[in-house]
Specification:
This protein is an alpha/beta fold. It has 2 domains: 8-117 and 183-312, Rossmann fold; 125-181, Orthogonal Bundle (Histone, subunit A). Helices cover 50% and strands 9% of the residues. It has 13 helices and 6 strands. The chain has a 6-stranded parallel β-sheet with strand order 3-2-4-1-5-6, sandwiched between helices. Helix 2 (79-95) crosses helix 3, helix 4 (125-132) packs across helix 7 (159-172) and helix 10 crosses helix 11. The longest helix has 26 residues, at 257-282. It starts with 7 loop residues before the first strand and ends with a helix.
Length: 316
């Protein structure tokens, strides 16, 4: 952190899935009187607990958590909407004299909150519906042709971002990368301290595989079936997170339980790798912590870092 600590402290805990972010956020909150603001795009959905690794209420240890169970699985939610709501919550936390702790692995949401997003056109439902019917590979091919810089930043399997990039391109006749040059301001009056967990790759992948096994054994397929029974569409925003498409394939008989589990493990490992790359590239200023957030030594290191940052601001 800069020595000039004119802004209020905000702690952001980032890193790949299964790196122990939630556990670390709770330790920081309990030590310094904080409240946690979710920064995971899947955990905003109600009823999707197993597949999103949502921390049960009992394990939150009395720490207030915000922006969890906010929407129904069929409701869309953009990074801009997240930044607006999260910003209001951060202001409320600070007004109560508590420490805001933003925690999650959705890097685009974190960037939207901290630094703002480019001003872009509103969603066009008709255009979105037309684009959404195409596969990720097809959308990526189109984007590579007309906006290669955006295509280089978006993974071919990241369907929502591909749809948005092409929507912006078609509505404005400008590439999304051009629009990033006219960013809105993010949070004002805060000095973010970003903690980026970066555990050893082999150990992280082992945890991911074990977590996926536990999700399937714990009822992921039944959890996926419930919103469908209530009329939620198969391609609903809440059912796009890794694990749910694989569970849907089991439900419709197009794959086996074992194959779905293996595919979920593989896709989650790939996602974790992309997350680690994102945080490394987008937050070079972050304090990189080479370990898991639930390891006592890592907790101690982070508590010391946060404690020193608060001391610079005159907190005891």
């Amino acid at each position: 952190m800069p020595e000039d600590a004119g802004g209020r402290l905000l702690v952001a805990i980032a890193g790949p899935t299964a790196s122990g972010k939630s556990a670390l956020a709770i330790e920081v909150a309990r030590a310094f009187g904080g409240e946690v603001v979710n920064c995971d795009s899947a955990q905003v959905y109600r009823g999707l607990d197993i597949g999103t690794a949502k921390l049960p209420e009992a394990e939150r240890r009395g720490v207030p958590h915000h922006l969890i169970d906010l929407l129904e699985p069929g409701e869309p939610f953009s990074a801009g909407e997240y930044a607006e709501r999260a910003g209001e919550i951060v202001e409320g936390i600070a007004a109560r004299g508590a420490l805001p702790i933003v925690c999650g692995g959705t890097g685009f949401y974190l960037r939207a909150l901290l630094t703002g997003l480019a001003d872009g056109p509103r969603r066009d439902p008709t255009l979105r519906a037309r684009l959404s019917r195409r596969s990720g590979d097809a959308l990526h091919r189109i984007l590579r042709r007309f906006d290669p810089r955006s295509a280089a930043r978006i993974h071919p399997h990241d369907h929502p971002k591909l749809v948005r990039a092409l929507e912006v391109l078609l509505l404005t006749r400008r590439p999304m990368t051009e629009m990033f040059q006219t960013q809105r301001r993010g949070l004002v009056g805060y000095e973010p301290m970003t903690i980026a967990l970066d555990p050893p790759r082999a150990a992280l992948y082992k945890r991911i595989d074990e977590r996926c096994e536990a999700m399937f054994a714990g009822g992921l397929i039944d959890e996926t079936a419930k919103p469908l029974a209530l009329g939620v569409a198969r391609d609903a925003p809440g059912l796009r997170a890794v694990g749910y498409p694989q569970a849907l394939a089991v439900l419709d008989g197009s794959t086996t339980y074992e194959a779905a589990l293996a595919d979920t493990q593989r896709a989650t490992r790939h996602y974790a790798k992309r997350q680690a790359t994102w945080f490394r590239n987008q937050h070079p200023e972050a304090a990189r912590i080479e370990g898991f957030g639930d390891e006592p030594a890592i907790v101690s290191t982070v508590l010391n870092l946060v404690g020193e940052a608060l001391k610079k601001r005159g907190h005891s």
